[in-house]
Write a structure and sequence with these properties.
Helix content: 25-40%
Order of helices and strands: EEEH
Mean pLDDT: 89
Number of strands: 3
Strand order of the largest sheet: 1-2-3
Shape: globular
Distance between the termini: 59 Å
Length: 77
């Protein structure tokens, strides 16, 4: 059986920019394919493979302290 190898240009099936605030309704699920899906209101759904979900988790974990500091500094101004 031949395994499909994804290249960086093939790794994202659709591109768009969306900004999500904490006021959005977040729903999560695991699909029959094993993807982790997050739906924000009824506007956007993001489906992540297990490896992509883990990578995003690590990236967010590393940035959250910085994001909180920036948000606190902005709210003081």
């Amino acid at each position: 059986m031949t395994q499909m190898v994804l290249q960086p240009s093939d790794a994202v099936e659709q591109t768009s920019y969306i900004r999500i605030t904490s006021e959005a309704e977040f729903k999560e699920s695991v699909t029959a394919d094993g993807d982790y899906e997050i739906t924000f209101d009824t506007t956007a759904t993001v489906a992540l493979t297990p490896d992509a979900a883990e990578k995003l988790y690590r990236m967010l974990g590393a940035r959250i302290p910085e994001l909180r500091r920036l948000a606190a500094a902005i709210s003081l101004n």
